[in-house]
Amino acid sequence: MIRVLLADDQSLVRAGFRALLDAQPDVEVAGEAADGEEALRKVRELRPDVVLMDIRMPRLDGLAATRRITGAEELRDVRVVMLTTFELDEYVFEAIRSGASGFLVKDTEPEELVRAVRAVVGGDALLSPGVTRRLIAEFAARSKEPAAADALARLTEREREVMALVGIGLSNEEIARRLVVSPLTAKTHVSRAMIKLGARDRAQLVVLAYESGLVRPGWLG
Q1: Higher pLDDT, 140 or 177
Q2: pTM of the predicted model, to two decimals?
């Protein structure tokens, strides 16, 4: 059973998400929070698998709460998915850099929300939709010049190639087709790259791909 914590200051939003998720046979809502401080407290208390975290909340915003969750060793297995009202929210790229496993706009289709919860628990990240690729490209373009790529020296040539494809938003299945390998092989290369670079999940691997200069804004194919 996948346990989810809902963190949003709008009770109507929480009620809608709860009704949808509780209707799934493999998902249950473990708790709710109306602000970032309460979310942080309940994450420590309930240890959910996934937190659906609104970016803008009183007392402690979702970005700050996410940093505290992803920075706590004892909470390393908790995945955070940011919720935003707008597709191009100025905080989303920073949220992913801070350890969030992805983001969703609040008016996403119900089946996409359920798929997202299952995906992050399975180790994937919400980085395939074109809107996410556009967002990452936009904010990467505003960031400083790429850092030295010394870390990439730890990767094999194939792992760098796979990491670049992850960086432009391709799924394991799409990478497998591009490289003419099996999806399992593609997933293995992604996992090895994450381990070697110390990436928490696929989302941070994308950030590292941009920050190292392996992928540049505009290379979205």
Answers
A1: 177
A2: 0.72
Q: SS3 string of the chain?
A: CEEEEEECCCHHHHHHHHHHHHCCCCEEEEEEECCHHHHHHHHHHHCCCEEEEECCCCCCCHHHHHHHHHCCHHHCCCEEEEEECCCCCCCHHHHHHCCCCEEEECCCCHHHHHHHHHHHHCCCCECCCHHHHHHHHHHHHHCCCCCCCHHHHHCCHHHHHHHHHHHCCCCHHHHHHHHCCCHHHHHHHHHHHHHHHCCCCHHHHHHHHHHCCCCCCCCCC
| pLDDT over threshold 80, residue 205 | yes
Query: Phi and psi of 83, rounded to 5°?
Result: -110, 135
Q: What residue type is assigned to position 18 of the chain?
A: R
